[in-house]
């Protein structure tokens, strides 16, 4: 009989042992025994396998699932044979199943071939072997292993019978193929019986006939041992498995399974190619799969009746919430609310599927954020033990693929398949992520979907699927600065994005607060844990780990609570109040909270409520559950949101108050003195300071080693020595009664006495080297002196008075104000008890001084800016003196070390130094590190250390930026053969040049200005002040200079000036005027058929251009000022050489006068005319392009030659794309447009209307933004212009000879000057010489220079200037004329 599909032929043989003994067909006997087992095995009069086979055949499933325990109970010998020789017995078992199926289907009448082949699948939970314990002794035996599926390949077709055909004689042969990974050996010689006179078939003549082969589905699985079975310190082991037929596509990555199979071996291709013939790779041929858990659906765990009764009694006994939470990590003292939150996380809420198919998660996510040493990691480790399903990982060692899923290529089939990550493997359980803040941002983003939608979408390597990741996340992280700082907002402490924080249901801020009673209790608890006693005494809670684990499983399996109507109503009200509270907090702090309160947080409270009900096996969540859920949420997330507020004050108020307390302590408390902390606190609180701000200020001073506690007292010590010595004061032996207040008139004298006392009375001014404090230390009252007593007030520094930054972020700033505190206090307590406060001599002490005025600016910032300027100008001694007197330093030690590391090229220390001083924002970290690594990369290249440079490029630079072109440019520098070529190619002056200084300057933009003052900050402030003065100056037309003694203001006589220059050279009306782009010349066009070039140095005539037969109406300078194009009423254009004044070309393509002309570049210009043509010309005289257009009155071209604006005779401005001369859009005016003007940046366009109106258009928004009026215009063309620095003015003429000048920004009329006797035809502005020119019908050109005072050198009228060379068109010039008509 042929072997069953997927198996080798039966390998059981018999022989006679004794002579004459009758042979028995053991193979047939075994098959008959197996057939009888299928037909006759029953349980409670139910024939289990006969009925199962009948049902499976009826639904088209050709398989039979057999329990090995049932085979054992039926025949132990048969079961033992099945375990020892499964490859031999299973084919017989499947043949017996097929015989049984034939009896069921056809009553035994049909042939065997008419019945489908039946696959027998075995399952067994007995003698489960760990994957790491599989060895050579189990080869070819039936084994049972458990683990997690981490990879499942796509289906492949496995041949079970291969049909071969000889190419020579057409003989066919069927070769069976072994199961699993076994292959087939194709015969090399044809075995057909030889025929007479026939040739033998050649070698290797067989071909595979695919159509006649038999195939089954096959899938490769990769199973890893369960995490709870991995020994400590060992790596998880995995094994490869082969499943076929009905066993394929049964499991997916993340499924927890128990697999029964045959442990066997195969020869891998790599071992075969290496010649290792005797080396075989082990694998498991799967014969049965039992899914323990797939996703979140457990196979029904069978609880005994006794267990169920115990769990129900435990829930009904009351107090299960307290018992369970107290049993969580009993070795960890305190953290009761965190343990309660973890209890809720283990049980989770109720999962819901909405009618539209949307699923709402029930799993709870918790984030523990806090100081080091607060047992966060131990809590995570305990949860890993108590949760039925859990994965523990660390953020630093986790990648995005490790957390979600990775795509792996099968080494055999070369196909891709998925391997699940932590979130997939923990499906239905808990993922514990330690060091959550150490994860890379891109890895953290990978779990966003899993934390909310509880799925992981994969679209890689042609695989598109969605994996279940229905797990809770318990994460632990440290704050941004290592320890949580109450003086900073939550956003400054938490280095996470809002998107990830919103996915946590509860966020706990765990602080290591200094509390003497609590510290003593913790110390006793820790000593009990470390004492020599049994582990049960120390760690035992009310519930054992096993009981907790089983109870969690029971509750999650049997209970899914729902909210009562009252509970839902209360939750709704709480959400509204919670949102209102957050809005109030954000309004008071003037910034958005980094921890959002959205609908997700409402759902979080719902989940917490349901978990509390589930914990008690209650089907309904009541008001009591809601109250506890709200309390937990307030103690966690809402407490984190409110961490920036204290005693009803905002964080900024608290910081300002703390700074005032700190500075007052520094100023009033002499070095070496002692003071009662109780008295100090009482004095400050009596003056209105909050107790919290006083405590925080003293705490920070102790951390800065400015103050120190000793034997219940704060005493002074030498901060420069390892052991701080006590500096006792003679005042300590005197009475502790506080001194009387000084009158205001005596304050200055008292300060002088204090100064003398601080210097020890000997004029030395130093007390740090003596062992006693001055006697007058007692007479330093902490009084709130009025400003009149010492001339110095102490306003709170406001954020808008920050001098170190440009208002883009608060940064880390110091407040230099000296706030006074009322009340008086003694320097010692003298047996009073309580702490005593002292100051180190290592801290600078500010001497008494008199402030002459109040200032809203921080004293520290002002002093540091002066220090920077002194440093930049080389006043080193003055800088040192200022540092000594003020007590401020230009840079602290970490910042100075960072600067020194950069300039010295100590790159291994630069990164640590940068992180020690901090960045202005975390987003700037990659940019700053990229600048550092780029400099290091270039210096390695310069020193020809190519290997180190390549490592930096591959491992560091490529991870810090997404700018691929920049990385390509850097990689190309590796090919530079010499340092000189490198410096040229990189535009870099080398490591010994100024490159390090440039890197340092670029890094300063990423560092808080409070740490490192921006480069040339004082000059920047000066420039900004002058720029602001220029902005408010309505008539600003000339440079403000660098005068710091007075404010800048342009007088009304500056522009237009009181005295203008009149140029007389034309014999008739002047119609057009224009300055050259370089500012050296002025050109005017006249009705007298000539153009005149004037020198702007003395406004003398350079050339008089003659040649036109008609009036010259227009001219335009080339961009390089070397040529002029003029347009005349004789319908021609002429191109003039400025250097010689001669005509280069004549153009005759227009049928009417060219009304406008503009240059596109130095070789082409464009003209428009009333003949409805727009033509592009070349300087060589050729017509380049021509298009039809409306009748053109005037044209302008944008500065980048991309747009052309043409005004027609129908009150419209047509806008064209110059690259294609295609129409884009048009601007509509209410009247005929006479002329156009464009601003220097081509954003604004002026339109001069026939009605006497002047409009300004914004070309970006295509809207009219300003109107100017007042001048007179009728039928004449008057050309307007932008004028002044940055086009601040709009100027135009009037038909009555008046010049009008408006402010462009406001539209205000600034000047109205009568400059000509007849109509002004045009205006032109020159930026280089700061002058305005006007052309008039009175035959003159007037120059309006912008200057201070009267111009004595050119104040005369220049009339009748003789030209240096006057040119006329003669016969020789006719050769250059070209006609394009």
TrEMBL record:
Residues 728-737, 745-777, 814-830 have a biased composition (Low complexity). Keywords: ATP-binding, Cell cycle, DNA replication, DNA-binding, Helicase, Hydrolase, Nucleotide-binding, Nucleus, Repeat, WD repeat. It is an enzyme of class 3 (hydrolase). Pfam families: LisH_WDR26, MCM, MCM5_C, MCM_lid, MCM_N, MCM_OB, WD40. Residues 1372-1381 have a biased composition (Basic and acidic residues). GO terms for cellular component: DNA replication preinitiation complex; MCM complex; nuclear pre-replicative complex; nuclear replication fork. One of its GO terms (biological process) is premeiotic DNA replication. Residues 320-526 form the MCM C-terminal AAA(+) ATPase domain. Its main location: nucleus. SUPFAM superfamilies: Nucleic acid-binding proteins, P-loop containing nucleoside triphosphate hydrolases, WD40 repeat-like. Residues 897-948 form the CTLH domain. The gene is MCM5. WD repeats lie at residues 1063-1104, 1105-1146, 1147-1178, 1286-1312, 1313-1344. Its EC number is 3.6.4.12. PROSITE patterns: CTLH, LISH, MCM_1, MCM_2, WD_REPEATS_1, WD_REPEATS_2, WD_REPEATS_REGION. Belongs to the MCM family. This is DNA helicase. It is found in: Nucleus. Residues 713-726, 786-804, 1355-1370 have a biased composition (Polar residues). InterPro entries: CTLH_C (IPR006595), LisH (IPR006594), MCM (IPR031327), MCM5 (IPR008048), MCM5_C (IPR054125), MCM_CS (IPR018525), MCM_dom (IPR001208), MCM_lid (IPR041562). Residues 713-854, 1355-1381 are annotated as: Disordered. CDD domains: MCM5, WD40.
